[in-house]
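Can anyone check this?
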Amino acid sequence: QVRVVESGGGLVQAGGSLKLSCAASTRAFSSYAMGWFRQAPGKEREFVTAISRSGGSTDYASSVKGRFTISRDNAKNTVYLQMNSLKPEDTAVYYCAAAITTYFTVVVTKKIEYNYWGQGTQVTVSS
């Protein structure tokens, strides 16, 4: 069992920045592809961004491309989400997830393919 814990959420004004962190409790962190999803009130959980085991491949939802950056530090068992130019529509609970994969460069974008999820961290962007 892998425990995934997000941190770094909060309240920020539109145009501001936040950096989320996600720590995974496993010595085999580099065996997991990682991803960030978000869920706004009354909406389904949606894909935001994902990164491969190696960190060399990434993918982004069109709504955040150019504003958000995902990265990982396998030595620290941590994945990050740098969010810039935040908009009120980015307001949501942000979830980190880990996916078991044998492929070093594959990016996992589908919720159903993730094995472990965090409890989420609230991000609120005021206008």
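Reply from J.R.: I decoded it. The CA atoms of residues 57 and 67 lie 17 Å apart.
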